[in-house]
């Protein structure tokens, strides 16, 4: 298939998300050699025509299968057309990956119920900004890459990182904190963040990366929400926030982050705000979770903001900044 979706949980272990929607999955049946038998190709075509027939939702009739019929010769044009179809089928039979990677991949975004947007939405030919020069520090850890040949996964610097905010349950006194935290991460990575307004979307541990009815035909924006353990069980105990991203892949290109979430424990952070310097502490926690979103993991250095145990730091350390600068220099992948 053209694209694969994964979810990075808070233990940084990549878990493959089940594919959803038409056209995603094993696709055409193959022989043990990996080739596509002609009967399987015909069966797949019949299935796709049945699935996407415009009248299937409005009529109760059973869809008809596509059947072969004997026809009289109707001149040179028909003969050439038949030869072309045979050549295409033979080509697909001999090189099955062509169908999976190119033909189906190109058509998939435009099929009803597609789980992926059209390619390259909002993508530029060059990075929108450049990360700051690295300070040479090494006290940072990058989230694990799903591909051993790729050192790390990052957001595409050639398009904006869209984000939305669900303000429900936001504690009093937190106005502007999310904007400040986003600006800090943007400056440290060079990535361009674009605020797309408020949303009613609820946080979820199994969020869809593509929601065209809500956000249009583009990858879903990063969702930043004020929530609670009753809505997100992962916030139980001493966990005040969670952050992470989904990544996608197209054959021959690097994995890229496409959508993410930050989930903030509103009741817990309300208590934090009551202490001296509480507002700075909450802003630092949001920065910490956003750093997870763009690709930083926890580090065993208490002088860094990405240290797992909160020890009162409110600013990024040298190691944090070095890691974020690296994550801002990821590849541009307009094919997603």
Question: Could you characterize the architecture of this molecule?
Answer:
With about 325 residues, the protein is an alpha/beta fold. It is about 30% helix and about 15% strand. It is built from eight helices and eight strands; from the N terminus they run ββαααββαβαβββααα. It has helices at about 40-50, 75-95, 95-105, 175-190, 210-215, 265-270, 280-295, 320-325; strands at about 5-10, 15, 155, 160-165, 195-200, 220-225, 240-250, 255-265. It starts with 5 loop residues before the first strand and ends in a 9-residue tail after the last helix.
Low-confidence spans: 1-30, 35-42, 44-79
Mean pLDDT comes to: 78
What portion of residues belong to β-strands?
A: 5-15%
Which range best describes the helical content: under 10%, 10-25%, 25-40%, 40-55%, 55-70% or over 70%? 25-40%
The radius of gyration is: 24 Å
Based on DSSP secondary structure assignment, what is the total number of beta strands? 8
Distance between the termini: 13 Å
Shape: globular
Order of helices and strands: EEHHHEEHEHEEEHHH
The structural class is alpha/beta
| Count of discrete alpha- or pi-helical segments spanning 4 or more residues | 8
Largest sheet: 8 strands, mixed
Write the layout of secondary structure elements.
Blueprint: E1 6-8, E2 14-16, H1 38-52, H2 76-94, H3 96-107, E3 154-155, E4 161-166, H4 177-189, E5 193-198, H5 212-215, E6 222-227, E7 241-248, E8 256-265, H6 266-272, H7 278-294, H8 318-327
Parallel strand pairs: 3-8, 4-5, 4-6, 6-8
Antiparallel strand pairs: 1-2, 1-7, 7-8
Index terms:
8 strands, single chain, alpha/beta, 336 residues, 29% helix
């Amino acid at each position: 298939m053209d694209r694969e979706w994964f979810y990075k949980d808070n233990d940084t272990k990549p878990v493959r998300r089940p594919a959803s929607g038409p056209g995603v999955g094993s696709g055409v049946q193959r022989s043990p050699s990996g080739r596509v038998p002609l009967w399987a190709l015909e069966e797949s075509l019949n299935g796709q025509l049945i699935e996407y027939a415009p009248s299937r939702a409005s009529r109760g009739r059973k869809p008809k299968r596509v059947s072969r019929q004997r026809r009289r010769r109707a001149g040179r044009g028909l003969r050439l057309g038949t030869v072309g179809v045979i050549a295409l089928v033979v080509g697909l039979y001999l090189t099955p990956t062509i169908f999976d990677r190119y033909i189906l991949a190109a058509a998939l975004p435009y099929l009803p119920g597609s789980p992926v947007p059209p390619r390259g939405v909002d993508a530029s030919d060059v990075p929108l900004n450049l990360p700051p020069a690295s300070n040479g520090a090494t006290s940072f850890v990058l989230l694990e890459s799903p591909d051993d040949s790729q050192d790390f996964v990052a957001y595409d610097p050639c398009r904006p990182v869209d984000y939305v905010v669900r303000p429900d349950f936001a504690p009093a006194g937190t106005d502007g904190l999310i904007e400040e935290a986003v600006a800090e991460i943007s400056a440290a990575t060079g990535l361009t963040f674009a605020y797309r307004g408020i949303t009613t979307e609820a946080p979820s541990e199994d969020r869809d990366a593509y929601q065209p009815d809500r956000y249009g035909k583009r990858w879903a924006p990063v969702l930043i929400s004020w929530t609670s353990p009753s809505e997100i069980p992962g916030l139980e105990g001493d966990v005040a926030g969670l952050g992470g991203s989904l990544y996608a892949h197209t054959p021959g290109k690097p994995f890229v982050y496409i959508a993410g979430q930050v989930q903030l424990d509103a009741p817990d952070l309300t208590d934090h705000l009551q202490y001296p310097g509480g507002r700075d502490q909450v802003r630092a926690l949001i920065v910490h979770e956003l750093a997870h979103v763009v690709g930083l993991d926890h580090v065993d250095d208490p002088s860094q903001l990405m240290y797992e145990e909160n020890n009162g730091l409110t600013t990024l350390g040298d190691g944090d900044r070095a890691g974020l600068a690296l994550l801002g220099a990821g590849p541009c992948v307009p094919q997603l």
